[in-house]
Amino acid sequence: MASAAVTKFIVFVLFLLVNSSAAHYIPCSESLVEIAQGKNISHCKKLTTLGVEFGWEVSKHNERQIDILVSTRLNNAEMMWLAWGVNPQDRPQMVGTRAIIGIRHLNGSGGAKTYNITADTKLGCKLQPSEIDVHAKNMSLDYVASFDYLTLHATIVLPPIYNISRLNHVWQVGYGAQGAEPAMHPTALQNVDSTETIDLENGSAQHVGEFESRLRKVLALRWKPHKTDDYRKYWNIYHHFLGYALLAVISLNIFHGIDILKPDHSWKRAYVGILGVFGVIVTALEIFTWAKYLTKEKKPKTRTENPKPGSGSAPAAETQTTR
């Protein structure tokens, strides 16, 4: 009983440690701190991709009202638009996002409007301004020449369907626009991975599955059986097939990524060739490993008898074959 209680306590402590680790976030730069002065922004953090930084302030009188400030350094003079949005679905993703997009025009002026990001948008259809279920006001896009920053500022009021302690948000940058119609953004990895779930109450954020992955690793360390345990072989089988399942999923994900990026067909052929070579190598190693294992299992085991105490001299070790 005491052992079970100790085990539960250890797992609970590990759970808290993992949770606190996931809550860590990188604060924003000094440039954004200075840009935010004079605006109603008290929290900020660096987002994980595209060099974008995000600042916010939840209203003390209405927790549904949030001032947001999205900013990125203008590393490319051709950058035309900056976007940020929220998604009411279970996972942070582009499709279904209610977005605010600020477009910088060639004459130096800029403006921001609201957009609904749909599956048609992902397929490349034109994206036009539209009403969204998030009330947005005081929207503006500004270029801060002293820091070479492009900033998007707005005040939003979230409907009850959104949870500010677990808010799915999306950000993006693009390099072309026609009037109020932003062109398709690049399909580089950073552009397709610009999503996360954030807690606006304390600033913690994590990618999808990050916390669950860490928790699985912690629990695996606790429940990993010893070599003498009866169910050790089932643990080995589990790890064996889990490893191959992960390899299969990774391979399929790469095919999915190729379909998204739509490169030249030679990329897919090259990848298939690499997978074929990899498969041959893995098969050969598996055959070698199993052959070595079965040979070792068939080999007779020996043990050494200790000499009887009191004998004058230690006799030569006598071996017996165990059946």
Automatic annotation (TrEMBL):
Alphabetized PANTHER family for the sequence: CYTOCHROME B561 AND DOMON DOMAIN-CONTAINING PROTEIN (PTHR23130:SF175)
Principal localisation: membrane
Residue ranges of coiled coil: none
Membrane-spanning residues: 237-258, 270-291
Ranges for domain DOMON: 50-174
Name of the protein: DOMON domain-containing protein
CDD domains on file: Cyt_b561_FRRS1_like (cd08760), DOMON_CIL1_like (cd09629)
Subcellular location: Membrane
Keyword Membrane carried by entry: yes
Keywords: Electron transport, Membrane, Signal, Transmembrane, Transmembrane helix, Transport
Signal peptide: 1-23
GO cellular component entries: membrane
InterPro entries found in the cross-reference section: AIR12_DOMON, DOMON_domain
This protein's record includes keyword Nucleotide-binding: no
